[in-house]
Design a protein that fits this description.
alpha+beta; Arc Repressor Mutant, subunit A; 3-stranded antiparallel β-sheet; 5 helices; 58% helix
Length: 112
């Protein structure tokens, strides 16, 4: 996609939704999942992802489990109970936004 700026405001929602579906993921896994789901149209940089993950953790929406994998420490992120509620709220908010945008970009004019 030519303009990744459109996705910046949705990054937290994307992260929360992926974690809702998969239970727990590590950062690189999140970036690869987004790339795969969008067939390369959207790529999330580490510079955008990790600050978002840290903020979601600080806000109490994510918990982190550190696991040693192949002699390296890997952080797995998982939704907290609060994060599960936030995910539902964010998805509902996004659906309303999409419906509003549809009305704005494709208005149905009445002939009456």
């Amino acid at each position: 996609m030519a303009n990744n700026n459109l996705y910046k405001g949705s990054l937290n929602t994307i992260i929360l939704k992926l974690l809702q579906e998969k239970d727990s993921m590590y950062g690189y896994e999140i970036t690869q999942k987004v790339k795969a789901l969008t067939q390369g149209e959207l790529s999330i940089t580490e510079g955008a992802l990790y600050p978002a993950l840290h903020k979601l953790e600080a806000d109490g929406f994510l918990e982190v489990e550190v696991v040693k994998v192949d002699n390296r420490l890997r952080k797995y992120y998982k939704l907290t109970e609060r994060g599960t509620k936030e995910t539902a709220d964010k998805l509902s908010e996004l659906e309303r936004y999409i419906e509003t945008m549809k009305v704005l970009v494709n208005p149905k004019f009445s002939l009456e």
